[in-house]
Amino acid sequence: MGEALLSIAGLHAYHGQAHVLQGVELAIDREPLSLVGRNGMGKSTLCNALMGLVARAEGQARFDGVELVGRRPDRIANLGIGYVPQGRRIFPSLTVEEHLQMMAERRGGPGAGWTRERVHALFPGLLARRRVLAGALSGGEQQSLAIARALMLGPRFLILDEISEGLAPRVVDQLVEALRSLSQGGIGMLIVEQRLAVAAALSRRLAVMVNGRIALETTSAEMMADAEAQQRYLGVKGDRGPRAR
Q: How far apart are the C-alpha atoms of 16 and 60, rounded to whole Å?
């Protein structure tokens, strides 16, 4: 399993009779890793399996030496893993402030220095909108809130699933800069992205998932330069987006 912060070996996951993850192998340390692939290849299932959110998972997934498979989601979060799920999943009837307060109470401690003031410094737009219901926020504000909510638990590692989905390029650029700042601050990341350019902007390491397996591990720069590989694995060519790392 090695000494990586997050080590995944022979991980299988099922949705009913569907065998979605078929022996995933990955090692992620403090340097972020982006995971790309076409729709339906198992990327979100991997995120959910790591967070204990699938009914049946087998194999090994260790965070800082602690086994995740078989643990409850709340206990996984308590190990220091924050999750920003696809679709954001915020509570529309709660204000921005209530979201952050809820997480502050949930952690029961200082949260490794993540106060509301620190979150507002990372996402200044949330300060002005702190009394607004989350359902009335723009898509970019909702995504910022979803990340901020995860940070309030003081994670050492973030799992981010499709953060750029449905957002304007300018908003994506702002989120990329915020996440780069977090990475430079020592938070490890698994970044699941549909858009190759966004994935490349957030990490130098990149893996491709095909049919529930890791089909390729490479660098973001090599993948961005290889139009044939982009077409083969992603069905796209020449994806544009934020400047790669």
A: 20
87 Cβ neighbours under 8 A, 6+ residues apart: 162, 165
By 3-state DSSP, what share of the chain in percent is helix, strand and coil, each rounded to 5?
Answer: 40, 25, 35
Give the pair of three-digit tokens for residue 128. Answer: 């002005």
Contact call for residues 212 and 199 (beta carbons, < 8 A): no
- Token readout for 25 is 């192998």
Integer Cα distance of 22 and 156 in angstroms:
27
Q: What is the CATH number of the domain that holds 194?
A: 3.40.50.300
Q: pTM here?
A: 0.90
Give the structural domain span for 24: 1-70+188-245
DSSP 8-state code for residue 244: P
Residue pLDDT, tens place only, 79-93 = 999 999 988 889 999
Question: Is residue 226, in this structure, part of any structural domain at all?
Answer: yes
| Domain assignment present for 182 | no
4 domain residue, yes or no: yes
Nearest to 224 by CA among 206, 211, 41: 206
In a domain, residue 102? The reply is: no
pLDDT tens profile 160-201:
999 999 889 999 999 999 999 999 999 999 999 989 999 999
